[in-house]
Amino acid sequence: MGCSPILISLSILSCSALILAGDFRKDIDIVWGSDKAKILEYGQAITLSLDKASGSGFESKAQFLFGKVSMELKLVTGNSAGTVTSYYLASKGTMWDEIDFEFLGNLSGDPYTVHTNVITQGKGDREQQFRLWFDPTVDFHTYSILWNPKTIVFYVDGTPIREFKKMNTKNVAYPEKQAMRVHSSLWNGDDWATRGGLVKTDWSKAPFTAYYRNFEVQDCDWSAPGSNASCGGGGPNSWLNEGIDENSRKRLKWVESNFIIYNYCNDAKRFRLGLPTECVVMN
């Protein structure tokens, strides 16, 4: 049997059959802008804020090798141009792995851009960007990252928006050797985030605030660098065996047909020597 969901607690020293009550006070470290990060609801929620002096961010105390991470976010309201709300998995070092959700703010009334990327051994350049089919500032929505030995899938409210498959036989690098932590931050990215940096952050609207709650991780055993992950056998419905089934494939195609606004696999001008291998294989 596979690992059971562990709410908030990111301990991956053993699998647990319990769903533990979450507590941001115990399970994350505020790594910058500590005066702008506020833990609320007895540890069940957290807010991050940004002003001209500083942004703020947190990371999980523990790390894991493979897992499924979900969190509800409500993004910065109003004129959020120039702001970046990030939520991602990342390892350490100069040859790091990373799986990114970044939410790029915009002028009031204009839609957010959801920016995604997969970085392996320090190399990224795998960006895809999307619009959402709802206003992410009005209410909380669930954003999930599935990372197992076969595939990476980005989900919004259970709908897959992007899939990145393991293709080692095609010499496509895949993050599978480095444990990662969950990170989130709110920061000023007005040199690139909104219309390529043309629209700057309006500091008269500060502080900008993003809201987080209901953080859930299902993960694998991991104890030390170089060790193997232990996930148990995993049932057919386990996250360890999860992928894009027929119904999910239809929803993914719906997103790709209606909401994707940039795909590196279609950017021949950027990759003048040829598209990345995974783009050619997938097509």
TrEMBL record:
<keyword id="KW-0378">Hydrolase</keyword>
<keyword id="KW-0326">Glycosidase</keyword>
<dbReference type="InterPro" id="IPR016455">
    <property type="entry name" value="XTH"/>
</dbReference>
<dbReference type="GO" id="GO:0016762">
    <property type="term" value="F:xyloglucan:xyloglucosyl transferase activity"/>
</dbReference>
<dbReference type="GO" id="GO:0042546">
    <property type="term" value="P:cell wall biogenesis"/>
</dbReference>
<dbReference type="Pfam" id="PF06955">
    <property type="entry name" value="XET_C"/>
</dbReference>
<keyword id="KW-0134">Cell wall</keyword>
<dbReference type="Pfam" id="PF00722">
    <property type="entry name" value="Glyco_hydro_16"/>
</dbReference>
<keyword id="KW-0732">Signal</keyword>
<dbReference type="GO" id="GO:0004553">
    <property type="term" value="F:hydrolase activity, hydrolyzing O-glycosyl compounds"/>
</dbReference>
<dbReference type="InterPro" id="IPR013320">
    <property type="entry name" value="ConA-like_dom_sf"/>
</dbReference>
<comment type="function">
    <text>Catalyzes xyloglucan endohydrolysis (XEH) and/or endotransglycosylation (XET). Cleaves and religates xyloglucan polymers, an essential constituent of the primary cell wall, and thereby participates in cell wall construction of growing tissues.</text>
</comment>
<dbReference type="GO" id="GO:0048046">
    <property type="term" value="C:apoplast"/>
</dbReference>
<dbReference type="InterPro" id="IPR008263">
    <property type="entry name" value="GH16_AS"/>
</dbReference>
<keyword id="KW-0325">Glycoprotein</keyword>
<keyword id="KW-0808">Transferase</keyword>
<keyword id="KW-0964">Secreted</keyword>
<dbReference type="GO" id="GO:0010411">
    <property type="term" value="P:xyloglucan metabolic process"/>
</dbReference>
<feature type="signal peptide">
    <location>
        <begin position="1"/>
        <end position="21"/>
    </location>
</feature>
<feature type="domain" description="GH16">
    <location>
        <begin position="1"/>
        <end position="212"/>
    </location>
</feature>
<protein>
    <recommendedName>
        <fullName>Xyloglucan endotransglucosylase/hydrolase</fullName>
        <ecNumber>2.4.1.207</ecNumber>
    </recommendedName>
</protein>
<feature type="glycosylation site" description="N-linked (GlcNAc...) asparagine">
    <location>
        <position position="106"/>
    </location>
</feature>
<keyword id="KW-0052">Apoplast</keyword>
<keyword id="KW-0961">Cell wall biogenesis/degradation</keyword>
<dbReference type="InterPro" id="IPR044791">
    <property type="entry name" value="Beta-glucanase/XTH"/>
</dbReference>
<dbReference type="InterPro" id="IPR010713">
    <property type="entry name" value="XET_C"/>
</dbReference>
<dbReference type="GO" id="GO:0071555">
    <property type="term" value="P:cell wall organization"/>
</dbReference>
<feature type="active site" description="Proton donor">
    <location>
        <position position="102"/>
    </location>
</feature>
<feature type="active site" description="Nucleophile">
    <location>
        <position position="98"/>
    </location>
</feature>
<keyword id="KW-1015">Disulfide bond</keyword>
<dbReference type="InterPro" id="IPR000757">
    <property type="entry name" value="Beta-glucanase-like"/>
</dbReference>
<comment type="similarity">
    <text>Belongs to the glycosyl hydrolase 16 family.</text>
</comment>
